[in-house]
Amino acid sequence: MKVTVFGIGYVGLVQAAVLAEVGHDVMCIDVDETKVENLKKGNIPIYEPGLTPLVTKNYEEGRLNFSTDARLGVEHGTMQFIAVGTPPDEDGSADLKYVLAVARTIAQHMTSHKVVLDKSTVPVGTAEKVRAAMDETLKSRGVEIPFDVVSNPEFLKEGAAVADCKRPERIVVGTDNEEVVDLLRELYEPFNRNHDRMILMDIRSAELTKYAANCMLATKISFMNEIANLAEHLGADIEKVRQGIGSDSRIGYHFIYAGCGYGGSCFPKDVQALIRTAQQIGYEPRLLRAVEDINDDQKQKLPQYIARHFGEDLKGKTFALWGLSFKPNTDDMREASSRVLMEELWKRGATVQAYDPEAMDETQRIYGHRDDLRLMGTKEAALHKADALIICTEWQSFRAPDLEFIQQTLNQPVIFDGRNLFDPDRLSRRGFTYYAIGRGASL
Ligand code: NAD
């Protein structure tokens, strides 16, 4: 099938590459000329495991193309995906300006029936706004061309995006037109062989499903962080509690790790956007507010431990920081806990020696050159002459470090672990002062 994807970000690029891989003919359109030129040269703008070979192969074989020419994109696909960003507006609601701009562009250039699929995360009622924007543009052109608007939210996880798109757990389709379902079945057939993963519903339910999913996941994290804060004061160990509750099949082990807060481009903004939606209809979203508040506080947890150990004034202190991305296997630093931490440390006069397997360029892009940030080539180099080690992201390569080397290299054997990677008893036996999240039994 001929497919066009507007927006070559984490969602658009991965989805486009995976659709091309199964044989669809995919044209990607972005307003960012540099990004498009780089992609044509084989320079992939983001880090996702398995993405570079997939993009390169499908581009070379001609099934995946990149352009800034929106007219070309509209002509190309019967299926027109919108996968542009929906960043938070000033009041926390999702800013739809990019989504609606694409809708108008499609209507501006279309000459035949198009199916417009909304992959961006958008508030309930957006499909109606997309339809209205397209109707208005078509009217101003003085033409009547039929089109459908479908809600087809994306559930990929950054860090496992390619695998998730190749084997989606579900394909949510919100539509009010039965005839479109056939086209979508054809589009997604290669991903739907083992069993039917397509969940059909009305458009508003599909739009709400995406927010409900992300808010549920954020709630699980904030719930565990609340219990971790209790555990810390009650002399209990959240890691033991986690295993104790995870063994209940109604709860399960997934996504119940306490830590230094969730980040990323989705959870914080989607929780905020659903809060805003609730307020707009006069409903007070008490639980969602608590989820957000707990998370904001949780990002202050490591700075608080550091103040407890070193005092508030950190002038002259240097901290080794392992992990900058908001989670492992990505270079994405949007809303990352590491950013809150570094900014707190800098405010108090400290220097940060940071290492991340993938997010070094992104850190440089965000913070530029500053005297109190040293980007180090290896995790070992980051330890050199530092007063303590801080861990913000649970990359695999941080999980079994050479403790002896850490002890010898740091000025003092102190670790602040925002991801509960180590056994507190073992670290204490080895002479470390170890701060972790909600492990009061060991503090
Ligand atoms: P992103 O910021 O990585 O990419 C968005 C791209 O859209 C950018 O390259 C930008 O230049 C481009 N763009 C903006 N306006 C455009 C226009 N008029 N025409 C063409 N391109 C345009 O965003 P992302 O992380 O891929 O997220 C996209 C959407 O998907 C958001 O709504 C997000 O909430 C949702 N989502 C993201 C994830 C994730 O893990 N990142 C997962 C599921 C859903």
Bound molecules: nicotinamide-adenine-dinucleotide
**CA-to-CA gap between the ends?**
59 Å
Name the overall outline. Answer: globular
Portion of residues in beta strands equals: 5-15%
The biggest beta sheet is recorded as:
6 strands, parallel
Whole-number tally of structural domains: 2
Structural class: alpha/beta
Order of strands, main sheet, comes to 3-2-1-4-5-6
Question: Given the structure, what is the number of helices?
Answer: 18
Uncertain spans, ≥5 residues at pLDDT below 50? none
- The CATH superfamily of the largest domain turns out to be NAD(P)-binding Rossmann-like Domain
Notes on the protein architecture:
The chain is α/β, with parallel strands linked by helices and 443 residues long. The chain has 18 helices and 14 strands. It has helices spanning 10-21, 33-40, 51-60, 70-76, 97-109, 126-141, 161-166, 178-188, 203-234, 238-246, 267-280, 286-298, 301-310, 337-347, 360-367, 379-383, 403-409, 424-429; strands spanning 2-6, 25-29, 64-67, 79-82, 114-118, 147-151, 171-174, 198-201, 318-322, 351-355, 373-375, 388-391, 414-417, 433-435. Helix 4 (70-76) packs across helix 5, helix 5 (97-109) runs parallel beside helix 6 (126-141) and helix 11 (267-280) packs antiparallel against helix 12 (286-298). The chain is globular and about 75 Å long. Bound molecules: nicotinamide-adenine-dinucleotide. Nicotinamide-adenine-dinucleotide is lined by residues 6-12, 29-32, 35, 83-86, 98, 101-102, 120-121, 154, 156, 158, 265-266.
